[in-house]
Backbone:
């Protein structure tokens, strides 16, 4: 994990854990040993049933970062989603993105060194939802890595996705696999994937 991202995750969770927040997204994938890849932001998610506390949680996280010496701009905020641009005054040209959201989860988070982390089942369910809605290179890499761990089968991943998203449709997902061929290898290589891995992944999703 990027060291600044790690610090921001730890600081954010120290404040937001009392509101039910846990590490999510690409760094949660990494925390569970599924895949170690670069991530563009820090994702902190709380449970959907705690969405009534979301505004207070965002304010607490913003205050926590500012108390830690960071400059913070809330670039987007809605009832259940907020995006922060967090900047170290020593590096004002390099803001870091922190996203907070209220989202569905099936299981309690697990405690790790960084703080609470979404349960692995909820992490991969979220990644299946990401694959279904945007089908970006990193989404294919995350799901391929989940399958490679032997902890999850394709059937199980679809079951988890269906529980988390009532609109999830397996035939539509199958059509989205065609997106894989539209991306050049360099889009996957940006996340550390090697040519042989990319080739095998293309075959597995064909």
Residues:
């Amino acid at each position: 994990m990027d060291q600044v991202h790690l610090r921001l995750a730890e600081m954010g969770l120290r404040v937001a854990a009392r509101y039910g927040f846990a590490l999510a997204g690409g760094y949660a994938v990494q925390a569970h040993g599924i895949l170690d890849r670069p991530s563009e932001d820090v994702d902190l998610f709380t449970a959907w049933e705690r969405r009534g506390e979301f505004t207070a949680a965002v304010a607490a996280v913003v205050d926590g970062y500012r108390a830690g010496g960071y400059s913070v701009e809330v670039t987007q905020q809605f009832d259940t989603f907020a995006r922060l641009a967090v900047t170290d005054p020593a590096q004002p040209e390099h803001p870091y993105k922190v996203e907070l959201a209220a989202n569905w989860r099936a299981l309690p988070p697990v405690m790790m060194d960084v703080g609470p982390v979404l349960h692995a089942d909820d992490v991969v369910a979220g990644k299946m939802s990401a694959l279904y809605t945007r089908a970006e290179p990193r989404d294919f890499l995350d799901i391929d890595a989940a399958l490679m761990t032997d902890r999850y089968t394709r059937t199980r991943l679809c079951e988890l996705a269906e529980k988390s998203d009532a609109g999830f449709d397996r035939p539509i997902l199958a059509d989205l696999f065609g997106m894989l061929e539209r991306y050049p290898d360099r889009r996957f290589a940006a996340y550390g994937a090697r040519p042989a891995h990319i080739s095998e992944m293309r075959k597995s999703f064909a």
Observations:
- The chain has a mean pLDDT of 94.
